[in-house]
Fold:
Amino acid sequence: MRHVFAHLLTSERRAISGLAGLYASRMLGLFMVLPVLALYADELSGATPLLIGLALGIYGLTQACLQIPFGWLSDRFGRKRMIVIGLVLFGLGSVVAALADSMSGIIIGRALQGSGAVAAVIMALLADQTREQVRTLAMAAIGLSIGLSFALAMVLGPWLAARTGLASVFWFTALLTLVGLLVLWRWVPAAPRRLKHRDVGMDHRQLRHVITRPDLWRLDISIFALHLVLMAIFVAVPFRLLDAGIGVERHGMAYLAIMGAAFVLMLPLVVIAEKYQHMKAICLLAVGAITLSLAALGLPLAEGRGLFVWLLVFFTGFNLLEATLPSMLSKLAPAGAKGTAMGVYSTGQFLGAFIGGTLGGFLAHHWGLDAVFFGSAGLALLWWLIMWSMPAPPPLSSEVVALGDNHGDTLDTLMARLADVAGVEDVMVVPEERLAYLKVNRKQLDQDALTRLLTPPRQ
Structure:
């Protein structure tokens, strides 16, 4: 890892650090309200459990609807310009929510926050700014920033709300937006206009193939269900903490302890999944743990210390799936279709957040808080049954390699020769990008043969 960092260009270091921070700050702003909105909703006129759930999840609907249009517009009008527009919309939504004195105002503000759907544009700009050989590292930095932002949001949201009220959470988010605009302007370097990146961006020509593959749509269902149950339970979890004798001002510390312990428990399971190729078994274990914990949270088992045990089980499973599902997607996506597969996957995540918040509010409104957990557990059990029949993902990884400008082979010949290299399982050559997208088994890959093949002949 140190060797890779040492070979980053200065512009790549600035792009990775700036854009990862920008991505994380947006997610921090979206997540900070999760552990506090239900607790402070009585300060807002018109608050009902259903509207609280809708306010929690509404950002997912606007995000899902607008992320692809934002990506297309960034191809035409420029990445930075569209990121600025998205950040302005996100900041405007934060201000609207901060000034709101009714639940409808919060819903409008959260919808506006989600309309700044620049996640895919940030990833595309990062791809513009980085070389193929360091892009995996760049994308990993984004993934790490998302995980850290979620954990920080669970702590920072309750801490701010307890001291200065719910509005301060949204004002802090608006401040983060201003900082993000400054970082984009002064720190992130200008990017050259490049062609589409099939390992990052959507390609509508591949969309049908990606959506209809059973192994991929199982992963789309998984991220949909994962964020559905996450958003649903935050209609009820804050009240469970109150019932356990945890004051509002101490909720942040409770989440910190739970998330920290869940992270520690997750790490060896990730190693087992990746190193020993037990991805499917670990995935089923995580979904099963989530199902069991949700059912237990609806029972008297979740009283006192039992509450923390079952929340720990839930967040261990949640963190484990957040780490392993993208890895499984990368292994299963066809060569050159990773970006399209990830776009569909992200859309599923956002829709899950929207439906989960709304469903959680609906269940709480009509049948009480226990129904939120039992309903979520039932959906998680169905999810587990769907995943049971999924084949284990092969030990493959994606690789993007540059082609020399004077490579003498025809397209068909080059693809055939690449496919004949030991360890290369799938190939897509894109002549206009001068790139080859490969799916490789690194344990079997003949790296020397691949290097010789891709080295252009001397004139």
